[in-house]
Amino acid sequence: MPIPNRGVPQEYATVTLIQYPNSNSHATGFFYTDQDENQYLITNKHVVDPEDEDPEEIRILLRDTPNISNLHYEDIELVDGSGERNWLSHPTDSDVDIAAIPLDVDLQQYGNMAFSQDVFMPDDVQIGAGEQAMIIGHPFKGNRPYFPVARSALIASPYGVPFEGMKCFATDANMHSGTSGSPVLTIPSAIQETEGGISMFAGERTYLLGVHSATLHSDHDPEEGPLNLNLSWYAELIEDIVNSS
Fold first, then answer.
1. Which of 2, 61, 186, 217, CA to CA, is 20 to 30 A from 170?
2. How far apart are CA 145 and CA 186, in angstroms?
3. Do the Cβ atoms of 232 and 184 come closer than 8 Å?
4. Average of pLDDT values for 129-135?
5. CA 139 to chain centre
6. Is residue 205 domain-shared with residue 164, that is, in the same domain?
7. One domain for residues 64 and 123
8. Last residue of some domain: 56, 81, 114?
């Protein structure tokens, strides 16, 4: 009996595995389109500029239309011929662990999708303490067709407030190094709580909350187990970055 063919949700088609040509390491990124329809790969700054390595390029995956299980590989240079970097970082805060890489690719020719400013959390929508979210990324490389996986997460710090003095919030989730650069999203829902009450929609909506960055480490006794607390940088910082070019 064949498995059901229900298509792939947009969130999965927006995320890509990031590979390095001379390393077994990997990371996660996602596609983003600004108001001028310029397209970018969004990931962490430490993915394109790691402390112990100096990668000159990365490889991402593009998917066929309509069969997004068919893959094309796209190599992206991180530095140009004069040694200047080909990616953007936050113009005023070097601690922000987000990088935006301009793409010379027309995503409309492929089965990939892109987030935009339209999926940022509206100001009047409430995020409660301990509210559930999802982080979609690549904790392991896996095999073709390299679809990402969704991990459950809880919003662990007050959303909309800097965490530990940084432009990020904390999530409670069991994450791994390959998920660096993953989008943090609300759970799809047709109901949302706003300042004016409860709103309902004809279809489910998902909002982009942030960019997963790293797992917090503590000096407590290892026998107590891992913290499972992570940093995610607010999604609105993406617009600061792409508008700085």
1. 61
2. 25
3. yes
4. 94
5. 13
6. yes
7. no
8. 114
Q: What number is the average pLDDT over the span 107-136?
A: 91
Q: At 97, which CATH number?
A: 2.40.10
Domain that holds residue 37: 10-114
Q: Is the pLDDT of residue 202 over 50?
A: no
Residue 209: inside a domain, yes or no?
yes
Question: Do 90 and 165 sit in the same domain of this protein?
Answer: no
Model confidence at 204, in pLDDT bands (50, 70, 90)? Answer: low
Is the pLDDT at 77 greater than 50? The verdict is: yes
For the chain, what is the domain count? 2
Question: In Å, how far are 119, 153, 198, 203, 210 from 191, measured between CA atoms?
Answer: 15, 19, 7, 9, 21
Select from 59, 50, 9, 14 the least CA-distant residue to 32.
Answer: 14
Higher pLDDT, 30 or 244: 30
What's the Cα-to-Cα distance from 206 to each of 44, 60, 175, 229, 244, rounded to whole Å? Answer: 22, 24, 21, 23, 27
Asked if 136 contacts 149 with a C-beta cutoff of 8 angstroms, the reply is yes
Residues 6+ apart with CB under 8 A from 91: 240, 241, 244
Q: With 60 as the cut, is the pLDDT of residue 195 above it?
A: no
Task: Determine the Cα–Cα distance for residues 39 and 36; give it in Å rounded to an integer.
Answer: 9
Burial of 143 (0-12, 13-18, 19+ CB in 10 A): exposed
